Input
Amino acid sequence: MTWIYLSPAISRWTPKSEGDLAAAISGGLLEESHYLDLKEQTDPGKAGNKELARDLASFAVDGGMLIIGIREDKANRTFHLGGRSPGRRPGGGDRSAPGR
Output
């Protein structure tokens, strides 16, 4: 089990490393809220930029954190670190393929 102690001096959890995120995910401690938005990736182009701007603007009053690289499994209500396997490129190409 992973414990995160919050106090008046530390009112919100802030991950310091990928290990912190992995521990929070395995402990079932991540949940999107007014202060935390989790995304697998950002979409390219103007529409993606507008969505990202809206997400960031939602933190303008009280602050918050946007973490990119967390995949949500909505059916099981769980989160997973990283949106793709390390050997694959976003466009589908294999990094280990000759000539790449």
About this structure: The chain has a mean pLDDT of 76.
